[in-house]
């Protein structure tokens, strides 16, 4: 299997499977002199790890990240300093239950990548889905933690804004609330609604989709390139690479189709500090593929988890019609744990473009 690497200068390769002994990533191109601690990386890993509430998979993984290469330890014994060589990070798998997947070893789960992997490679890892499992995204979060260190002043945050048909009230948006509930919701009022709704989904053995919004602040103006190197193009591609993502929009996205030219155009005025001020941000901080200096805003839609307890019509590897029911521990709404994953992918895209801009122009922004 190829295509396990993304990025141009800030290059990330992930490796490992859901039920293997470990997984991890190699970050190549991280500039020398980046200072970070294991605790800083771990904080983002802890945000994503499973088993933290009844609304996510009950697989218990500590997701402790180990930095294996590419750093030197500072005199304080805690701070690592990047050397400019590849940084390898490892996360051990400790709570696999491969026997739960024995019944689907030759049966394809509807809505899952089982069939497409088998038809492409002639073999598939049915134990939790192998590389097609969202378990692989733990390594992306580790890489994203490093990416945040590359761009000075970068602040990437995300929140869950919709589960099923239940949307937040954007007038209630409060970033402080995101870390105060199990859904990463910025709207405290929607939390009890989501709790009741997901409890019913979970007890029925079913699943539901969601929408995540990512906001990157501190992105300097000038990142990205016209035509085939657009910042929003790469953000969209990386978000689409996340398991179960079926749609991405930047700024107002599809809602822009309902706006007039007067409504959609982000008007500008000169600020007191000699820099332009945008009076709105319908473009999501990107025009012509190049960042404007405003917040970069992206949203992505996540389909319902394919592994459910309800019996569904399918076929097996021998061409027989079968009924498939998936046992094991699964997220009733995978969108919840996609929040830190979306943050990581946007951080990686911005870091890559920051380094590409510096390489091309010789200037830092």
Describe the protein.
- 24% of the residues lie in helices and 23% in strands.
- By secondary structure, it is of the alpha+beta class.
- The chain has one domain: 4-Layer Sandwich (Chorismate synthase, AroC fold).
- Strands 1-2-3-8-5 form a five-stranded antiparallel β-sheet, with helices on one face. It has a five-stranded antiparallel β-sheet with strand order 10-9-11-17-12.
- It is globular.
- The two termini are 38 Å apart.
- The model has no long low-confidence stretch (mean pLDDT 91).
Strands, helices and their partners?
Blueprint: E1 5-6, E2 11-16, E3 22-28, E4 35-37, H1 38-48, E5 65-67, E6 71-73, E7 79-82, E8 87-92, H2 114-121, H3 137-150, E9 155-163, E10 166-167, H4 175-178, H5 191-203, E11 210-217, H6 231-240, E12 245-250, H7 261-264, E13 268-270, E14 276-278, E15 286-287, E16 290-291, E17 296-302, E18 312-315, E19 321-324, H8 338-361
Antiparallel strand pairs: 1-2, 2-3, 3-8, 4-7, 5-8, 6-7, 9-10, 9-11, 11-17, 12-17, 13-14, 15-16, 18-19
Helix pairs in contact: 1-3, 1-8, 3-8, 6-8
